[in-house]
Fold each of these.
Amino acid sequence: MVARLAAPLVATLAVALVPAAASAVDAPAGARLAVCHRAPSIERRVAVVSTWMRGIPGGSHLAVKIDLWERRPGQHWSLRADVPGLGSWVRPSDAGVGSRAGDVFKYRQAVGRLEVPAAYRFHVTFHWLDDDGAVTREASRNTGVCRQPDLRPDLVLRSVTVAPSTSSPGLVRYAVTVGNEGGSTVARATVTATFLSPAGPSPHRRNVRELAPGDTVVITFTGPGCAAGDAPPSFVADPANTIEETDETNNALAAVCPAP
């Protein structure tokens, strides 16, 4: 399990200058969604916008501003104003870019740690300025939508059945049903058992090599029984909180006392 924190989005950016011949588009500026990477882990969810513009008569100084808009299920589009590097005007490092024939100013912005489920799109504003810094022309573009479904797994402890152990007299066999109700496969998950007293010959930890979405597996533990009024044996999936899940509240389950 991994606690769901409101982590800020992280932005990275890069600037490049290329000859105008590299683009066959006649419009003075453009923007597109270059990358929309979906993943179960927030660390790998990334959207990248690619923009370009070139100088025009009376507006040979160039500037671009990129904003990110987000839409949650059942909500309207809203501006994400908390993303470092966005919402500010950026100009070419060479102030002369745009004043020479063949100049094109290209700019890419990457935004990571996208939250789910949500949809994202970039809004790009272009400014052309004269030698006095006055804006002579403005244009804006919206990119395509980067949809980020919730692909995280979801480990669920569904049931615990109890029966006398056939191999260890005086102890009890606990069969724990573990399911994955999320959108991606779980690999190397751990389930632990806690008893009131030493659990006998079997260890208190079991490993699940792989559990695909919709699949279940039964894991068994051998331990002491419990009487009415005792604290029952308890079982936890992913006790070290190493798996980022859709729901972090369904990873624990207790047996019912008395156990045989």
Amino acid sequence: MVPPLAAVPDLEHELDALYALPLDEFTKARNDLSARLRKAHQADAAVEVKALKKPTLVAWSANLLARERHELVAELVDAGARLRDVQQRALAGKAAQADVAAAATREREAVRTLVAAARDTLGERANAQVLDRLSQTLRSAAVDPARVPELLAGRLTEELRAVGFGPLEAVTPRRRQQSPAASRAARERVKELRAEAMRLAREASEAERATREADREAARLHAEADRLRAEADEAASALTAAEGDLSRGA
């Protein structure tokens, strides 16, 4: 029997390195890793690696944040877990609305901080559409227990959409014996709260988008002011030199 070739030393390390690559290098590096695994007689792993999807730009951006700003991503995941817990207890009548509001504010702030970090990291690629989709992907991944490990490991492959108004979608209210009238009233109350929460979530997204656009406009105006200041300084220097020449000629 032919002895197997040397195995890839650390597949997890290889995968971390793969997802850390620039997007345009992913496919070739993935195929190379799959070939090395096959030569090392790790056929199953080779097939799994070859099937890995190239991340979208938004997913790649989230992965980049997970590696370079891991503490911020961990804070978002913790905030998302806290919000789910508080909402679950609130629906069971064991948490106050103020607690839900505080947890929701913390979760939104964690997303906002990460999007701001992404704006600095991505540079010219950080347009309004990408940042909005990144915000949704971060929020959705952070509240989905199946996605949290991928987010923390920096191995997302696709962008995600926040459904409804976030974590509350996953909350299952405790079943209690109620009269038909009380059940109807409770359903109406939940319907009203859901509609209100969705409206507020839309308004928050629009406000965040407006903030990003205002930041870009402020940066553009600042650059324009710097350019004009430089031109004014040059004009002042030229004026001083011309006045000196005139004075010496007189």
Amino acid sequence: MTATPHDALFKATFSVPGRAAELLRVALGPELAARIDWSSLAAENASFIDEALRSQQADLLFTVRLGERTICPYLLLEHKSTPERWTGFQVLKYVLRIWDSRLSADPRLTALPPVLAVVLYNGDRSWSFASDFQALVDIPPGGEFLREYNPQFRFVFVDLSAMDGEALRTHDTSASVRLTLLALTETRAAGDVQTLVAGWIGLMRELMRDPHDVATIRHIFSYLYAVRGKAEFGRLDLRALDFPEGEAIMETMAEALINKGLQKGLQEGRQEGRQEGHAELFIRLLRRKFPQVAAARVALAEAADIATIDRWSDQLLTAATVDEVFA
């Protein structure tokens, strides 16, 4: 189970082997990427993150052919606000667990598969630590001979926060990969959600051409809702961005969130969940009929009881003005 919206978006996109292959090609560079049979990339059902770190990291494990051998690319997303000195040590522990799982699954193994660890950092501050595990070992003066007796390990490091947004929009990867990376790198720091999404509309239109890619837009909207909050998400006007087809996706999302709220309210024996669900649906329909509805009217609906919202909903069906809805 993913613990944060960053985890959810990361795994929704990159658990698909084809998209993971696109990301790995970029991370590993052209020389190594050219030697790998990317058509053989397959996801492994495993996670090796410590429970204490699960709110800061998400991981995905794959197998892929390199010549006649199998290697194990291991993707780790770091979304800490502050760079972590001991990431190399953590990743080394995960690599050991991957090998341990291989030995447990097949005790007859005579050799371990190579693991290629890729760390993707999505933090607010620049990363300043080495990707070489040896940098974490304090070798004393005159003790260079000790290095060969300690683990020789490094991970591939990709700083998502340092990626240029304009370069990502035109990068040679699929629209799903580009939009996911843009969302991960731009959403938290953006000043205005309407302007933020305006920069993604071209990619969203590209995704709408393929029914299989529409799910990515749904994941992006869910991410926006979780990271920026219900109020900002509710003010998003897709018609003003000339993307009205996106409203149907938002409607489906809203219904799911409302049903979730209703179910939660019923399970806990409270009216709050039902009231919030009724209010959200009413406000969504109200804004569709009257896009310029005042914020004061929205606040009134959010505070109303279920019976009042039901009455206003009936009046909304035939109302010609906002005033008639709230009469």
Amino acid sequence: MKSIELKLGCDHRGYDLAEKIEKWICPIDDIDVDGPFDVAVYHNVGIHENKRTDYNDIAVKLAEEIWDNSMGILVCGSGYGMQIQANRFHNVRAVTSRNEKEIEIARKHNDANVLCLGSDFTDFSTAKKIIKRFLSTKFEKGRHTKRVKKLGNGRGK
């Protein structure tokens, strides 16, 4: 049974990479072909054409749709602007990753639920490896649960 609720968003600098990611994750050319992941619900929050866009607006759109069991991918030039904006939302734990090991640790120890990619630093081949690890790695819970809960209230208590 498919279980992942996934959102994708990008600005103009991340548009080309995000388009490739979307076609890879959710192939629509053949309706009988499933994508490589257990994506039950998919939503592209924009942009839908390559036009100049403030990354903030897209990060906000995606962050507003992140709740308990959903995950997101944001793509801009560096990944950092999207990460900073998205992390202003209560249920979001966004990280910018450049490799598989970084995202694996962020998922296991921090329950990261939004992956930010920088198209200026990440080619499609590398992005696929990072996304595979992001969507397949589970949160370890245990001692990490208390720490992740502290992230949610903004005060560290």
